Amino acid sequence: MGEMVERVDEQDHTVGVVDRGEAIRRRWLHRVATTVCRDPDGRILVHRRPDHVSRFPGQYNWLVGGAVGVGETYPAAASRELAEELGVHAPTRFLLKYLCRGVISPYWLGLHEAVLNEPVVPDPSEVAWHAWLTPVELRAAMHDTTFVPDARDAFDRYQAEKAGSRGSLPRHSALPPCPERSP
After folding, report:
1. How confident is the model at residue 162 (pLDDT cuts 50, 70, 90)?
2. What would the mean pLDDT of 132-153 be, rounded to a whole number?
3. 9-17 contacts: CB < 8 A, separation 24 or more?
């Protein structure tokens, strides 16, 4: 059996415990916790997923995260994922939660933020490449580079939550190109 998660309803109330793979296959709602990682200068960590992963191989993301385990809170899952994927222990701050209709399955997304004051040591099975980008550079990269499908909507919601200003955006990405995919 794979990773167990809580199946939830449209109000994010638990209705049962299921295998995450089954939740995705059957498009059942479950929970995902993510974290925006910022450095002390306000830049955002962006990473590329390894080519061998089953979901969105070789694509970029600006969020670190994963499924919320059975009995786990969004903040606890966010902290656990930071440790697992980046090898860091940092306090996370809950920002918002919304129902994401997701490309592969719908889920409740809990979005957190953490300021990382220590170097990241990414797990190579989770992160193939990483860099720190300003929010403006990140927005430009999203137009020029293949990001995981739900990343743009999450970024728009994050920016609205942070009430950040939006100036003119550069036209060129600060990221290396995404490897070509065969259909």
Report:
1. confident
2. 94
3. 10/99, 12/97, 12/99, 12/108, 17/70
Closest CA to 24 of 117, 102, 137, 98: 102
Query: Which of the two residues, 82 and 2, has the higher pLDDT score?
Result: 82
The Cα 25–Cα 20 span in angstroms is 9
- Cα 152–Cα 157–Cα 158 angle in degrees, nearest 5: 95
pLDDT at residue number 166: 41
Return d(Cα 108, Cα 111) in angstroms, integer.
10
User: How would you classify the pairing of strands 63-67 and 31-38?
Assistant: antiparallel
Structural domains in the chain plus CATH codes: 4-162 (3.90.79.10)
CB 85 within 8 Å of CB 74: no
Q: At what angle do helices 135-144 and 151-162 cross, to 10 degrees?
A: 160
